[in-house]
Write the C-alpha cells for this entry.
Amino acid sequence: ESDANLVLQEELDRLRKTDQLTRFINRQTFTRQLTGLIEDGFDENSLNAILYVETDGIEDLHQQLGMEGIDTCILDLANVIRGCTQDTDIPARFSDHGFTILIRRGKKAALQETADCILENYSNHIIDLGDKTLSASCSIGMTTIGALTQSAEEVLSHARTAFKQAAQKGNRLLWFKPALTTVSSGEADR
C-alpha cells in the first residue's frame, strides 16, 4: 500500500510540473529552475540565452481551427522545438500558445543556429488537421543571460519584448537590445 502511495505521489508531482499536451515542463517549474540557475551562476565558458517562441497569428488560427486544431499546432511546434534543441536545453510551455527555452552554447553563432533551426523547420512543416492541412510560421525573441542578470522575470520579460517586435513582421528572430539611458553627472545636478 505504501508503494502504491509513493507511485501516486510521484505521478502527482510529475503532473504538477509538466504540461499534459507537450510533455514539456510548465511555466512555474521553468521559472523556478531559471531562478535557481541565475542565483547559482552560470558556467563562464558558455553563452546562455532564453528564447520565447510563439506561432505567428495564433489568435486568428485559434478562431479558425477551434480547440482541437490549435492543440495540433501547439504540439507540432513543440515537436519542432524538441528536434532543434539539445539534451542540455530546457524547453517549457510558458503560456497557452508560447514556449520558452533555456539554451547554452559555446558561441553566439550556435545560439543563432538553434533559433534559425526552429524558424526554418516550423515554416516548412505541414500541420495535418485531418480533413485539411496548413502551414504556419513562428517568431522568436531571444535574450542572453549574463553576470548582470538580476532575476528570471527580467530575462523572460526581455525575451517576450523581443518576441513582440519580431511578431510584427512574422517568421523572424529578434535579439533583445536594452534601451540606452543617459547617466547624469553630479555636476549637472549641482
Residues 11 and 91 are 20 Å apart (CA to CA). The mean pLDDT is 90.
